[in-house]
Design goal:
126 residues; 4 helices; globular
């Protein structure tokens, strides 16, 4: 586990932020229509719980082998580590950890459904 004495910040990339905001808007609309436990609402709750966990334990996800890093993450973000957290309904939260002696930065790169995850990471469908 990483040291708790460091400041831990969570940020979203633009793409992940857009996906998250879209989900928040959808959930707001569902609440206005009286829905109280939709798949979207459970997914949003799952994301929020995982983000909260990252604030205390950035390395609590599943570390992804470097040989599986999608080229787009290497090219766009220059990452040297990659992690995932499983979300509700087989969605994935993909993130990297950066930092120095004073601060740990968890950068959420993607919020993706399982078929997109499989395609991005080169897994074959059965």
């Amino acid at each position: 586990m990483l040291s708790i004495s460091k400041i831990i910040r969570i940020i979203f990339t633009e793409d992940a932020e857009q996906e998250y905001r879209k989900l928040v808007d959808t959930v707001k609309q569902e609440h206005q229509k009286g829905a109280t436990n939709s798949e979207n609402q459970r997914l949003l709750k799952s994301i929020d719980e995982k983000v909260e966990r990252l604030k205390y334990a950035p390395d609590s996800g599943i570390q992804i082998s470097r040989k599986l890093f999608p080229p787009e993450y290497l090219n766009e973000y220059g990452i040297n580590n990659l992690w995932k957290m499983n979300l509700f309904n087989y969605w994935r939260l993909i993130y990297t950890i950066q930092g120095d002696k004073l601060e740990v930065l968890c950068v959420i790169l993607d919020l993706i459904d399982h078929p997109t995850y499989d395609k991005k990471f080169g897994y074959k469908s059965r």
